[in-house]
Amino acid sequence: MLYVGLDVHVKHITICVLNKHGKLLQRCQLPCLDDVIKFLMNLQGRCEVCFEASTGYGIYFEALSKIASRVAVAHPGLLKLIFRSKQKNDRADAEKLAKLLFLDEVPTVHVPTADVRAWRELITFRGKLIQKRTRAKNGIRSLLRSVGCRVPKEFGLWTIRGMEWLKQKDLKQPMQNLKRNMLVEEIETLTRQTRLVETELARYSKENIAVQQLQSIPGIGLRTAEAFVAFVDDPHRFANSKKVGAYFGLIPIQDQSGSTNRLGHITREGCAEVRHLVTEAVWQGIRYSPTIKAYYERIHRQEKDRKKIAIVATSHYLVRVMWSMLKNGTLWKERSLAV
């Protein structure tokens, strides 16, 4: 068995090959994936391949899986903890990956199918569209405040009537009118793009049983359910519910030594979009679910300073519950006391 480490970059790929005893056999640098495949096919004997997860890792995984006995995609964050070298270069990185593969110590990541990867990308893209639209709306609010203009109370600013009022409002200065027109045009464009994305997401999620399962939870809508299902993918890949909380970065940073145990902010690892959607869903869950409300109030303890802590803790609780529902194929059930 040969062990191959790949240090992948846009313009080239550095290769390191170890023999069955872990000794260096060959090094080279090739320009593209096709050349790497040809190189691996010409190796004498079976091989295992390891490379670090980055943009396009799914394409590499699928292509290399056809010719290699095993393909391990390494977690970039955990690799930094393993290799804290002051001398870093492509050749050294490829060799380190090959050695980890030889020792069977690669911290791997889950590689979803092409459909799920595209689903994840569109969910994340929608989140970025919403962020851009929010910035444009904040720009409009700032502009109106700068000219001392108030929106009439008869309608909301972002309703059809409100947008028509905004377009017709004369801000006196030509430059300010130009800025207003461009921001309004940006908001309308982003709103139209968001609707197209949401239509496609709804079409894809329509027949997904897992998405329908999670929508049985009060406060969990289609957007939150589909994002959670897409990024969890296979619930059985997590050993327990704590692993799911860590995957979405909802566990606190811990600094423990002897009798001292300090807990800091959450790690914020994993998908920020899912974390944001679940946190928003918690607010609705508190309103409509006695179980979620009881859990929140138990953490909150009617203390003003613990409000954010309680929201994050409830988000962590909700993520664990959602994972358990997917794993066991169950629907949401209200309880008198939250566990």
UniProtKB/TrEMBL annotation:
Domain Transposase IS116/IS110/IS902 C-terminal stretches: 212-297
GO process annotations (BP): DNA transposition
Cite a single GO MF annotation. transposase activity
Record's superkingdom?
Bacteria
Domain Transposase IS110-like N-terminal, by residue range, is 4-146
User: InterPro entries, per this entry?
Assistant: Transp_IS110-like_N (IPR002525), Transpos_IS110 (IPR047650), Transposase_20 (IPR003346)
* Full protein name: Transposase IS116/IS110/IS902 family protein
Supply the source organism for this entry: Gimesia panareensis
